[in-house]
Write the structure tokens for this entry.
Amino acid sequence: MMKRRIIDILRHGQPDESVTIQGWVRTKRDLKGFAFIEVNDGSSLANLQVVLNAELPEYESLLKQANTGSSVEVTGKLVASQGKGQRIEVQAQSVKVYGEADPETYPLQKKRHSFEFLRTIGHLRSRTNSLGAVFRVRNACATAVHQFFQERGFLWVHTPIITRNDCEGAGELFTVTGFDFKDIPRTETQEVDFSKDFFGGKAYLTVSGQLEAEVMAMAFSNVYTFGPTFRAENSNTSRHLAEFWMIEPEMAFCDLQGNMDLAEAFLKHIFRYVLETCPEDMEFFNQRIDNSVIATAENIIHKEFERITYTEAIALLEKSNAQFEYPVKWGLDLQSEHERYLAEHLFKKPVIVSDYPVEIKAFYMRLNDDEKTVAAMDILAPKIGEIVGGSQREERLDVLEQRIQAQGMNPADLWWYLDLRRYGTVPHAGFGLGFERLVQFMTGMGNIRDVIPFPRSPLSAEF
Ligand code: 4AD
Ligand code: MG
């Protein structure tokens, strides 16, 4: 018989239908003469209840084996459930236990575990309700990302993970080869130990696919990346990972306004999609994690984001300087306490802050006419802080060369990037959305390590 997903049975199953399911036992209740097991296959938050009658072949040994955590296949008939909170259950006709889980040692017994504890069993934690809901919502977010861009004719481009450039110029690069090739003359290449220096020079894990996305946008107009990025920043916070996923759209013939409009429409689309497709999981987060996530999501979908300039933001924040650990003044970068103050307290919705001082932003951002600010924009979200960082790019060759030099970088290293300004340059813009911060925002999860299956952060990467 064809195996069915538990979510489909819970939604559409009718009494008298024969079904086969496969999954892991979440709980077992022995009621003397019969027993209930609840089975979960990851397709939904809800378990399917299975009734085991004493008449089943080898009932006693079955009961011993079907503990929490064991893997089973059940074939039986659907019947209307007497139990509360469930419409339908399975009357088992045959049960096969694939693998037992010793109740003495299996760490996920039926009780609530702290997220800290669950991080120590990263290989098992996806079997819990909360992490299960997170990873289903994460999947829905990813689907919504592709849907949004594909519907608008954006090309998904695959930018490299190993690169030779530091896109953000912040020096937060993981080096791929530990061997500096610069001192070795080119003619001696054959002598070089390629196991130490594979690329004939320093190479890094990418911090952003933006520069390569710009290359592709200059051919395809509208593109986006969606892939892993890496930052060797020693930030042991609940918002930073050493390995995180980023979505980076890049649009030719687009300015800062167009960029902000797209980013706002994009976030609205993802929230709408997740509310529609994951209502049970979102309800779970609202009840168990943060009782404002659904209201927040509705707010994102229906209210316009606030838009202010950096200069206006500083003026607003200076009024509350007394309460900040780091008081603000024009020219300083916003800390997460300031970002959250704006989004959480002042506006109570996402805020798009634009036109930051040139000194605190990356070399590629377009210099404004005032020559003090650049056409940058960050989206600040309540509880998260910066969730999106973007800008209109500097499309003027001479200005870009000056900016690169001013930041102590070598224009020769970026010859190919500068070529984009030599041959058919156009105004263009894009942004990066931190995917894990988005999932955190969506679910209300407090720590970014709990929204990615295998978190990497300083001094922790278990396997
Ligand atoms: O603001 P960032 O550094 O911008 C860029 O990388 C640009 N090249 C993007 C672009 O214009 N194409 O990073 C973008 C976003 C941040 O707003 C944040 O959400 C996320 O990436 N991010 C991180 N997320 C988790 N852990 C970290 N260490 C992160 N660093 C940045
Ligand atoms: Mg940023």
Notes: The longest strand covers residues 18-30.
